[in-house]
Amino acid sequence: MTQSHMAREVAEIPEAARRFLALATASIAQAAEAMRRADPDVIVTVARGSSDHAATYVKYAVELLAGVPVASVGPSVASIYRRPLRLRRGACIGISQSGQSPDIVEMMRAAAQGGALTVAITNHANSPMAKASAHCLALQAGAENSVAATKTFVISVLAGLALLAEWQQDDSLRAAVARLPEAFAQALTMDWSPLAARLARAQSLYVLGRGPAFAIANEAALKFKETCGLHAESFSAAEVLHGPSAIVQAQFPVLALGVEDAALPRLRETAERLAVQGADVFLTGADAPGATRLPSLPDLHPLCSPLVLSVSFYAFIEGLARRRGFDPDVPPHLRKVTETV
Amino acid sequence: MTQSHMAREVAEIPEAARRFLALATASIAQAAEAMRRADPDVIVTVARGSSDHAATYVKYAVELLAGVPVASVGPSVASIYRRPLRLRRGACIGISQSGQSPDIVEMMRAAAQGGALTVAITNHANSPMAKASAHCLALQAGAENSVAATKTFVISVLAGLALLAEWQQDDSLRAAVARLPEAFAQALTMDWSPLAARLARAQSLYVLGRGPAFAIANEAALKFKETCGLHAESFSAAEVLHGPSAIVQAQFPVLALGVEDAALPRLRETAERLAVQGADVFLTGADAPGATRLPSLPDLHPLCSPLVLSVSFYAFIEGLARRRGFDPDVPPHLRKVTETV
């Protein structure tokens, strides 16, 4: 049997991470130095699709480590509504695998005109987005042939974390980032087959996370749709009790992405409450009454742990897609580069 | 047959809007004056559930009219992760019907300590959130007995728009806000029965919007879940083509919330594309090939139009809930005040 592009690209994640950290040192240092000089009061992010989930991850990491608020700005604010944002003490981080989508390029230009320091995170260092930005962190992840992004998502978040660690000169995060390639390799070996068995014939599910793991929940829900035809929806583990739990009936599947951080006890409580409601709950990182525990890597930095979980998830979902009869490389109706304007 | 609380509260929206505008003039003027003095570089919003959708609406309105970036901050940043945000040139707008949820109160206190001007939007002027804030816009919407918020959502957004109009001293928005009670009354009479017929037995659907109408799409998706047991999910009309359209098969229902603004041509294109894919598309505000048009009020201010649409939606969904055999006042598993910490 031929290996899918997606399987190959997921397997390449540890090596791509090593390569990025080796090759991007200088550009990270320069962008970090610029961030220290700018000392922004606000950071805006500009991205779509999986890259927007990477931006959400960066948002939580920046807010929790640097204490600077991060606003996701719809590219349409510039491209359609033509409203310049005032960013005189701001920075703008754009994330795009291709660096080509016209609305994102236009928003980067508008942010620079509004006064922001601009940083592009992209796999294409010669792309229009990279050229429109003061700094570029090139992913150097190689070609990504599967329509569903995997390695470029992981390396985009890695780039954001590496930039944050240098900007804040945080030795703990620096050390944790340096260990990520090895952690990614171990994450590929986690066995989530109990979840695969449950989802082989499911239609809907919820994916929960809190803090940076919420960004991974967003990304997981998108991948369930794209590659498995499952109507998966993500929620902050706090939000799910404000309404969405109304449709959680008996045997409704729930994947709760727990990581060892301050939010874990609350996520366990939410998992338990949904299990009491009758849901089939799968939980990483901890045990909870009524929930099935999925394995994950212990003892990671809390800002890195959810990213490592995403690698286990990617390895899992590629297999689930094939089990459900989908070609993970070719989701129905989708193209690799979606150019929105 | 007894009228549901929800039906009664939706019918009260025009009168509640009139009352708010009559009674809140002074507090709006004071908060707006404080915003002008603070001249914030960033606004953070703090909210959960329907109130968070109101905050998303305010985000788009502020970004499009004032050009100031708005970041939604998870209350858990303060309550769980204990990370103070630096908001020395910031403002913080908290939205909560009850004003009681401990995490939101704590985030408002943390924002004030971080240097932000704080404004509470709440139905309970003596609540802990109101007391923790420098300014309070009291909704004065009367009791809301249905678990699913309706009138407090609409009046919360109205409060945000009224504050924005005074802060920016924008006469066009001021005039549009003053006309909203009358527009809400007309919105209650819109006939969306073709959509009700289609959704009487559906399981899943997508709700699309762009700009402030995306906030209404979020709110609509939550209400479909809470009151009708439907797995509805909302997307920006741009995002839906970046992956989620993969599960849109033949007869998949899609509600596209079009309003007369700069994004409408693009929303029509998206609606048409999904219709070509086989989806059952319902579109407000415009015609599109293959889509069923739903009536909406014409000639509104683009920042008010989506809010008026929400009133038509509420009137529609109360009936759909009963048609699907649900009690719209008592969603399964939910309580009115969800206290997350």
What is the arithmetic mean of pLDDT of chain A? 94
Q: Largest sheet of chain A, order of strands side by side?
A: 2-1-3-4-5
Name the CATH class of the largest domain in chain A.
Answer: Alpha Beta
Number of domains of chain A: 2
Q: Which homologous superfamily in CATH is the superfamily of the largest domain in chain A? A: Glucose-6-phosphate isomerase like protein, domain 1
Question: Which spans of chain A of ≥5 residues are poorly predicted at pLDDT below 50?
Answer: none
**Structural classification of chain A:** alpha/beta
Question: What's the total count of β strands of chain A?
Answer: 10
How many helical stretches of chain A?
A: 14
**CATH architectural designation of the largest domain in chain A:** 3-Layer(aba) Sandwich
Radius of gyration of chain A in whole Å, from Cα? 19 Å
Helix share, percent of chain A: 40-55%
Assembly status: homodimer
Shape of chain A: globular
Structural description of this entry:
The structure is a homodimer of 341-residue chains. With 341 residues, chain A is α/β, with parallel strands linked by helices. Chain A has two domains: 5-178, Rossmann fold (3-Layer(aba) Sandwich), CATH 3.40.50; 189-323, Rossmann fold, CATH 3.40.50.10490. Chain A is 46% helix and 14% strand. In chain A, strands 2-1-3-4-5 form a five-stranded parallel sheet, sandwiched between helices. A five-stranded parallel sheet of chain A has the order 7-6-8-9-10, with helices on both faces. Chain A starts with a helix and ends in an 18-residue tail after the last helix. At the A-B interface, α4, β2, α12 and β7 of A face α4, β2, α12 and β7 of B.
